[in-house]
């Protein structure tokens, strides 16, 4: 939306002007321009090469759309880090479900149950999730046997 407002002052703008006016990074500007170009709201001579900051951009004068509203949100790029975080949260949820029903369980048994329920995730990730749940005080180790876990209600 901010990029579109820049066209109120000028009919044609450059990537460099967008960057100085909005203080956005070139990657964000590129994503916004790609999105606007896909919707055929703007016309750009060449913005694939971000080093060419002199590329001129102009609004499409004959833009028409049958919809009342045009969604301009850029597509969400799911990174590997967010996928790993989602996987860890899912593993933690399974650990909590198992421990709620069993209340006391050996670590190896818990890991085996999580692996069967979650289609073989990495054992090290499961151990890290167990340690994280101990830190968050959802689980605790037995005072006498360190490989025995208790679920804290």
TrEMBL record:
Domain (Cullin neddylation): residue spans on this chain: 83-147
Name of the protein in its database record: Cullin neddylation domain-containing protein
UniProt xrefs under SMART domains: Cullin_Nedd8 (SM00884)
UniProt-listed PANTHER family: CULLIN
Signal sequence range: none
